[in-house]
Amino acid sequence: MSMVPKHLNPGVCESDHYGRILKYDHNGRSFGLHLSKRPVGVRQVSMLSELKIGQTAVLVALELPESVQNHLMHMGFVPDALVTALRRAPAGDPTVFAIDGMEIALRHETAEAIRIRPATPDDLNPHFDPSLHTESAELLEVVR
Amino acid sequence: MNACCETPAFVPPAPRPSSGPLKTVALIGPPNSGKSTLFNRLTGLRQKVANYPGVTVEQRMGVMAGVGRDDLTLIDLPGIYSLTPYSEDARVSIDVLKGKMPGTPKPDAVILVLDSLHLTRQLMLAAPVLEVGLPTLVLLNMTDLMEQRGGHIDSLKLARELGAPVAQISATHGTGIDAVPLFLHQQTNRNAPTPLALPVMGNAASTHSWAAQVSRKTGYQAPLSVEGTRKIDNILLHPIWGPLLFLVVVVGVFEVVFSIGQPLSDGFGDILARMGEFVRPLLPAGWLQSLVLDGAWKGISSVLVFLPQILLLFLFIGVLEDTGYLARAALIADRVMRTTGLNGKAFIPLLSAYACAVPAIMATRTIENKRDRMATILVTPFMTCSARLPVYMLLIAAFIPNIMYLHGFLGLRTIVMLGLYLAGFIGAMTTAWLLKSSILKSSETPFILELPQYRMPTLRSLGMRLMDRANVFLRQAGTVILSVTLALWVLAHLPVVHVGGNAYAAPELADSVIGRLGHFIEPAIAPLGFNWKIGIGLLSSVLAREVMVSTMGTLYGADPATQAMHLQTALHHDMTLGGALALMIFFAFAMQCTSTMAVVRRETNSWKWPAIQFLYMLFLAWGAAFVVNHAVMAIFG
Predict the structure, then answer these.
(1) Cβ–Cβ of B331/A104 closer than 8 Å?
(2) Domain B24-223 maps to which CATH number in 3.90.110.10, 3.30.470.20, 3.40.50.300, 3.40.190.10?
(3) What's residue B247's pLDDT?
(4) Strand order, beta sheet including B69-76
(5) Which of A60, A63, A54 is nearest to A15 (CA)?
(6) How far is Cα B385 from Cα B365, in angstroms, rounded to an integer?
(7) Is there a contact between B17 and B189 (Cβ–Cβ < 8 Å)?
(8) Which residues from B are below 8 Å from A109, CB to CB?
C-alpha cells in the first residue's frame, strides 16, 4: 500500500501540502458527500491552463500558497466565479482570462494550479449570483 | 514641504474652522482606482515623497490645499487589494491606519477610493478599512464612465449598507470632489464617529461574498465591458502584428529619445555652461570661483544635461502606461524575459536604461513582486546608457580604424559600438539569471498582470507625472551629486602649493590627492593596460561616466570640445589598442555612476545593495578588461 502514491488512492479525504482539505483528488474525482446533490454523471474537474480559448468555465479552487491565493481572490478569482480564456500572448504564454469584468494574464504555471469545472447553463444565467448559490458556503469551507 | 508649485487655494463655501480634532487624513484605495489622480487633485501638488523607515514603500504626504484645507495633512497609502498582511504595502497601510508607523501621525479620518467600474471586487477593500473604525468617506471613482456604459449604483443605499458616507466622483474631471471638504467639515465639527456594525471578515472568499451581497442589495449594475478594448487587442496582441507593432513602438521610443532628446540635452548643456560663464565675473577670482563653477556647477550641470532626455523618456512611458499599452508590452515581453528569470514588467525599465539608469530604476516601481523588482534594479546599470557614449565615441575615434565592410553599409566602428551594447545586454541577462537562480529566487510569487481598458491619457496626469519624476531627479542631483562633486574638487585641489609671498595655488593634477590616488591604484590597473592618468579618469568618473572625457581632456591639456583630435592623438601615444579596448569593456561593465548608486539606495532603502552592486560590477569589469587586454595583445602583438 505504501507503494501507491497518495494521490492515486481514491476515497480518502486528503489534504494538500498547505494543510487544507481538498474535496477532489488529483485526478479530478470528487469525494465530498455534498456533491451527490449535483447532477449525476462524470464530473470533469480540470485545470484553468487546459481551458481552450473562447471557452468559459467555473472556478472551483485555487491550489496556491496562501498569499498568492489571497491576491488572486482579491482580483476576482473566487470559487464559483465564471472565467473565460480570452487569448494567448503572441508567444503562446501567458494567457489572458476574463473574470469579474477584468482581463488578467496568468502564466501557465499559475493557471495549472487553479481548478475549474465546465460551466452549466445555470452558471451562465446572467442573474446568477455567487453569494446566493446554496453550495457556495460549502465551497467557502473548502477554501477555509 | 515643496512650495515651488503652489496653486491658488480654492475657497470653500462653508466657514473655515481654524482648528479642530481633525489633523491628518489617510487616502486609501486598490491599485488602478484612480487614487494618485485624486491625491494630486486634493493636494494641488503640494506634496513630499519619502520612504517609510525600514521598508521600500514610498511615503507620499501633502496638505489638502486642492480643497482649501491646507491645515490638514493627507497621507497617500500604497495601492492595495486588502489589508491582509501578506505584502509589505499592506503591512505599512495597517501600521499607518493604526498609528503604529513611527514618524507618521495617526490619521483621524480615511478617504477610501473605489473604482465604480468594478465595484464588487473593489468593495472587498471596504470591509477591512471600515473595520479599522475611523470616520471614513467612500468615494466611487469613474462614475461618469460607469454611467456612460450603462452601469448604475444607488449610493444612498450603499452608504446605509456600509454605515459611511458615499459620494460619486470623477477624479480625472474633478466632478463630485466637493464631497471631500463637506465630509471634512462635518468631521471637524463632530467628535464621535458613528460605531459600525459589520460582519466579521474571515478570508478573501467570505469577503468577496459579502461584497457581492452589498453590491446586489444596493442595486449595483456593472457597466458593460467595452468591446473596443478587445478589438484593439485583436490587433495589438495578434500573433504576428502584435510583436511587430511592439518592435515599432520600442524602436520609435529609442529613436525619439536619441534623435530629439540628444540635441535638446546638448542645447540645455550649452545653456547651463553659459549660465556658469555669466556668473563667473560676479564671483571673486580664486578658489571660491573655482569651487563654485569648476566644482559644484560643473558637477551639477553634468547631471542636469540628462534632464530633457529623461523627461522625454518619461513622457513616452507615461503615454504608454496611461493608454494601457504598457501592460500589453509586458505581456508580449514576458516569454522572453522569463528565460532570464525576470518577468515582462521588467522590460520597460530595462529599455529606459538605454537612456539612463536613474529613470529606469525609478520605473521599476511598476513591478509589484519585490524580488523581481530588486533583480531588475540590480541588472539595470549594465544596459548601455547615454553617458557611456561620449567615452565610447572618444576611444573608438582614437583607436578603431574607419574600415567599411559590405560596400559601405557596415563600418568597423559601428561593429565595435554594437558589440559594446551587446556586451552590456549579455552582462545584464547573465546577472539576472544568476540572481534569480540564487539569492532572489521567487517561485511563490507568480506573474499576475491586469490588462486595463484602453484610455485616452490626459495632459494633466502626464504633466503631474513629469513634474513628479523631475522633482525626484533634481533632488538627487541637488544632494548626493553636489556633495560628491565637491569632494572630488577638494581632492583635486589639495594640498595647496605655496607659490611665494601670500599666494597659494592649486597643485598640478598629478600632485593633488586624486593624482596620488591615481598613482596609488596604478599597480591594480596596469594589468588592464591603463596608466595612472587613466586611473585618475576612472576615479573621477565614479561621479558620472562622461566625466572621464573632461578629466582626460584636463590631463592631456586639451579641451574635449575644441581639440578633440588633440586628445585622441595624445591617447594614442599613451595607450595600446589592448588597453583602449579593455577600457571600453571596463566602462561597459563598471558601475561608474553616483546618481545610479544614490537612486538604488533610495529605492532599496539601504546602502547594502548599491555597495554589493558596485563591487560585483567592478570585479566583472576588471576581469573582462584583463581578458580583453591580454587577448588583444596576444593577437595584435
Answers:
(1) no
(2) 3.40.50.300
(3) 86
(4) B47-51, B58-64, B69-76, B24-28, B109-115, B136-141, B166-168
(5) A63
(6) 20
(7) yes
(8) 446
Alpha-helical (H) ranges within B280-364 are 287-289, 298-304, 307-323, 325-337, 347-352, 357-363
C-alpha angle with apex B287: B284 to B292, nearest 5 degrees?
A: 80
Q: Which residues contact B233 (CB under 8 A, 6 or more apart)?
A: A87, A96, B328, B451
Instruction: With beta carbons less than 8 A apart as the criterion, state whether B81 and B93 touch.
Output: no
Say if the Cβ atoms of B205 and A144 lie within 8 Å: yes
Distances (CA, A) of B442 to A15, B371, B449: 24, 7, 16
Asked if B101 contacts B14 with a C-beta cutoff of 8 angstroms, the reply is no
Residues whose CB falls within 8 Å of the CB of residue B82, separated by 6 or more in sequence, listed in order: A70, A74, B90, B124, B125, B128, B204, B207
DSSP state, residue B175: B
Instruction: Tell me the per-residue pLDDT of B172-182, one tens digit each, with 9 for 90 and over.
Output: 888 888 888 88
SS3 at position B546: coil
* Structural fold of domain A6-143: SH3 type barrels. (2.30.30)
The alpha-carbon gap from B224 to the nearest alpha carbon of chain A, in Å, equals 8
pLDDT over 90 percentage in chain B: 12
Strand order in the sheet with A82-88: A46-47, A114-118, A56-62, A82-88, A95-99, A102-106, B448-450
Is B533:B552 a contact under the CB 8 Å cutoff?
yes
Residue B374 in this model has a pLDDT that exceeds 50:
yes
Q: Which residues of B469-504 are buried (b: 16+ CB within 10 A; e: fewer)?
A: bebbbeebbeebbbebbeebbebbbeeeeeeeeeee
Residues paired with B116 in a beta bridge: none
What is the number of alpha carbons within 13 Å of residue B378 lying toward its C-beta?
27
All three cell numbers of A35: 456533491
What are residue B25's DSSP bridge partners? B74, B109
Chain B CB within 8 Å of residue A60 CB? no
* Residue B1: band (very low, low, confident or very high) from pLDDT cuts 50, 70, 90: very low
**H or E element that contains B80:** none
Q: Is A66 within 8 Å of chain B by CB?
A: yes
- Kindly state the cell numbers that stand for B551: 578629466
Q: How many CA atoms lie within 13 A of A54 on its CB side?
A: 0
Q: Using an 8 Å CB-CB cutoff, list chain A residues near B123.
A: none
Task: Give which of A60, A126, A140, A102 is closest to B207, Cα–Cα.
Answer: A140
User: What does pTM read for this prediction?
Assistant: 0.73
Test B204 with A78 for CB contact under 8 angstroms: yes
Higher per-residue pLDDT: A49 or A124:
A49
Q: Where exactly are the structural domains of chain B? A: 24-223, 504-636
Q: Are B332 and B246 in contact (CB under 8 A)?
A: yes
Q: Can you tell me the distance from the alpha carbon of B195 to that of B349, in angstroms, rounded to the nearest whole number?
A: 46
Secondary structure class of B318 (helix, strand, coil):
helix
